[in-house]
Specification:
Helix content is 13%, strand content 46%. The protein contains three helices and eight strands. It has a six-stranded mixed β-sheet. The chain has a two-stranded antiparallel ribbon with strand order 2-3.
């Protein structure tokens, strides 16, 4: 038992250490802005002003399509979930047995008119359980990300982060996912609900965040490994 407690305290101490090292801008490669790929120089430069690798058609829009281009993601997340369950079981059994006559060595044992051996057993088991869970999340805003990769089918892998310093703390939003070029509007925006494999994180660092975080000892007594 003491070994389990010591192991649990060690695990929680490692978890507590992570709270002392909050995330910082650019510390995760998955959310860093991607730089555009420099175009290869032409084999022969004839001195013309127009460069085909950097040119843009008169009828071409300015939506993000290449690595390093910017795309604005409109955050419109609103989820609601509710689940309830109820279970009731019961079982009851009875056993009553009387043995009137027994023989030993060919001789009947006296029973004085009653049962020599009586056996009575009763067993009753019941279980009644219920549970109810509900969760609601809402996030709105905008974050501008960069195109990190162009997939062979033309879809774009976008990633980026946004930090905002307020008083004694920092708020951040991190976004990564896959979008279709056809879903990008003329104003170079795309809805967050149209992002595939979306990884969206919202959090904060600083004094206010630390004051809303339970200490490691409180988390230990609230953890599933606590036997009571």
């Amino acid at each position: 038992m003491m070994r389990r407690i010591a192991l649990a305290l060690m695990m929680l101490s490692l978890t507590a250490c992570s709270t002392f090292n909050p995330p910082k801008p650019g510390d995760t490669a998955e959310y860093r802005p991607a730089a555009p790929i420099p175009p290869l120089p032409p084999a022969s430069n004839n001195g013309a002003i127009f460069q085909a690798s950097q040119g843009q058609s008169l009828f071409e829009d300015y939506k993000g399509r290449r690595v390093g281009d910017l795309v604005t993601v409109v955050l419109a997340e609103n989820t609601n979930a509710k689940k309830s369950a109820a279970t009731t079981t019961g079982k009851k059994s009875e056993l009553d047995s009387n043995i009137g006559n027994l023989t030993l060595g060919g001789q009947s044992l006296p029973s004085n008119g009653g049962a020599v051996l009586g056996l009575t057993s009763k067993d009753t088991r019941t279980f009644d359980g219920s549970g109810d869970s509900s969760q609601s999340n809402q996030l709105s805003g905008q974050i501008t990300v960069t195109v990190a990769e162009v997939l062979p089918n033309g879809n774009l892998v976008v990633q980026g982060e946004k930090w905002l310093g307020i008083n004694q703390g920092n708020e951040y939003v991190r976004m990564r996912g896959i979008i279709r070029p056809v879903d990008i509007t003329a104003s170079n925006t795309v809805q967050s609900t149209q992002v595939a494999n979306a990884q969206l994180f919202y959090g904060g660092t600083g004094t206010l965040q630390d004051s809303n975080t339970a200490g490691w000892l409180t988390r230990f007594f609230s953890s599933p490994i606590w036997p009571i």
